[in-house]
Amino acid sequence: MRAAILTGPGQMEIKEVALPEPGPGQVRLRLEGCGVCASNLTPWAGPDWMQFPTEPGGLGHEAWGVVDAMGEGVKELSVGDRVAALTYKSYAEYDIADVDFVARLPDALSGQPFPGEPLGCAMNIFQRSEIEAGQTIAIVGIGFLGAILTRLAKDAGARVIAISRRPFSLDLARQMGADEVIPMEDHYAIIERVKELTGGAFCERVIEAVGKQWPLDLAAELTRERGKLIVAGYHQDGPRQVNMWLWNWRGLDVINAHERDPKIYMQGLREAIDAIASGQLDPSSLYTHTYPLDRLNEALNATRDRPDGFLKALVTF
């Protein structure tokens, strides 16, 4: 099979490698595609702790495809089933997954891309946020995750304030149902605008979905007394400082919404399958850029640089 191997900072090769073989309780997937995750960007940049070359397909973890072969003892699936899965070497034409971490895709999703891991992640973050009808919610950062959370929060009956840097993202937030949009330009102007919109009370829930220091600081400022600050951004570039005085004074509940239990990941993934298959959620407009495997480097660079109109890249095979 063909697989991508990162050979150094910002460097990639496509090589022919042996097909992986499924062991007991595993299936092999002939992949149709894999989403590109912002968490790939730090390894792509080549920090000191990164080891090159990567394993074939390494870093890819947002895969969907068709069951191609099954290991001993697998009875839940059949060859030919179209599935989404938690896999971890999916920048390749094939990958292996434990059967417990594979979900069958219904016919209603036939032909549609389905990067299951980030879709499931969005559903889990929404559950952890405990959003209810009548609440005012601020979402700081409207990328793929923030856009889905905007739609889910609006469907739950919340009033949604979307805050983001790019005009494209603000337009998207409106399309996903945001009641108010605010350019992420001036820290204090944003705080004053949200204060004005909420009668001075600020927001019951604030979701930070950027993964940088300033948006995290801003998100805390927008959270009302006894509100919940939900950290959904992936903070992977070093330590953070927090305004503990503010967190104490307002009595904030701070929720790190990143799951690590694969069973909970799978619960969210299955909820995403149900929501999209039923028409409750339509992420199709969020997949803005598609690349073949041999242009994975371009996909990673676009995810880093975020040109106008970019939201989510998919690598397809």
Q: Biggest β-sheet: count, sense, barrel?
A: 7 strands, mixed
CATH topology of the largest domain: Quinone Oxidoreductase, Chain A, domain 1
Structural class category:
alpha/beta
Helix content percent band: 25-40%
Terminal Cα separation, in Å?
11 Å
* Chain oligomer state: single chain
| Mean of all residue-level pLDDT scores | 97
Give the structure's gist in a few sentences.
This protein is of the alpha/beta class. The chain has helices at 41-45, 116-129, 144-155, 167-175, 187-197, 213-221, 244-250, 262-277, 296-305; strands spanning 2-8, 11-16, 26-35, 63-70, 82-85, 94-98, 102-104, 136-140, 159-164, 180-183, 203-208, 223-231, 253-256, 289-292, 313-316.
Blueprint (SSEs and pairs):
Layout lengths: L1 E7 L2 E6 L9 E10 L5 H5 L17 E8 L11 E4 L8 E5 L3 E3 L11 H14 L6 E5 L3 H12 L3 E6 L2 H9 L4 E4 L3 H11 L5 E6 L4 H9 L1 E9 L12 H7 L2 E4 L5 H16 L11 E4 L3 H10 L7 E4 L1
Parallel strand pairs: 8-9, 8-11, 9-10, 11-12, 12-13, 14-15
Antiparallel strand pairs: 1-2, 3-4, 3-6, 3-15, 4-5, 5-7
Helix pairs in contact: 2-3, 2-8
Structure description:
- The chain is of the alpha/beta class and 317 residues long.
- The protein folds into 2 domains: 2-113 and 287-316, Quinone Oxidoreductase, Chain A, domain 1, CATH 3.90.180.10; 119-256, Medium-chain alcohol dehydrogenases, catalytic domain (Quinone Oxidoreductase, Chain A, domain 1, Alpha-Beta Complex), CATH 3.90.180.
- The protein has helices at 41-45, 116-129, 144-155, 167-175, 187-197, 213-221, 244-250, 262-277, 296-305, and strands at residues 2-8, 11-16, 26-35, 63-70, 82-85, 94-98, 102-104, 136-140, 159-164, 180-183, 203-208, 223-231, 253-256, 289-292, 313-316.
- The strands form 3 sheets. Strands 3, 4, 5, 6, 7, 14 and 15 form a 7-stranded mixed beta sheet that branches. A 6-stranded parallel beta sheet has the order 10-9-8-11-12-13, with helices on both faces.
- α2 packs across α3 (144-155) and α2 (116-129) packs across α8 (262-277).
- It is globular.
